[in-house]
């Protein structure tokens, strides 16, 4: 998969699929529940062939898409967030989560 997945923007700008999004964008714990391995591999193959793959036209579960993304990120040669920035990122997130500063 390309590093320029654009999945979030595609989901937000795509027309709603038949039956609506069914809560897919607000599903909690999407990385805790594994997607179907053969579907994740199919998604990977389709994306490798077409980087403009429109997920709204596909019938993949949110867990399949999340699992494919998780697999992609774990296979990167370097981490998505460089090691030297990880502590700062966690601290920034902690500050943001404080009452009165952002989401609680």
Automatic annotation (TrEMBL):
PROSITE patterns according to UniProt: RHOGAP
Annotated spans, Disordered: 1-25
InterPro entries the record matches: Rho-GAP_domain, Rho_GTPase_activation_prot, RhoGAP_dom
Residues of the Rho-GAP domain: 1-104
Name of the protein this chain belongs to: Rho GTPase-activating protein 35
Lineage: Eukaryota, Metazoa, Chordata, Craniata, Vertebrata
Gene that specifies this protein: ARHGAP35_2
């Amino acid at each position: 998969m390309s590093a320029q997945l654009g999945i979030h923007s595609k989901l937000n700008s795509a027309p709603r699929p038949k039956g609506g999004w069914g809560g897919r964008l607000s599903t909690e714990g999407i990385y805790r529940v594994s997607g179907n391995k053969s579907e994740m591999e199919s998604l990977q193959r389709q994306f490798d062939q077409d980087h403009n793959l429109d997920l709204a036209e596909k019938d993949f579960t949110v867990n399949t898409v999340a699992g494919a993304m998780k697999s992609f990120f774990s296979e990167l040669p370097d981490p998505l967030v460089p090691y030297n920035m990880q502590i700062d990122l966690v601290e920034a997130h902690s500050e943001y989560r404080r009452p009165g500063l952002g989401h609680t």
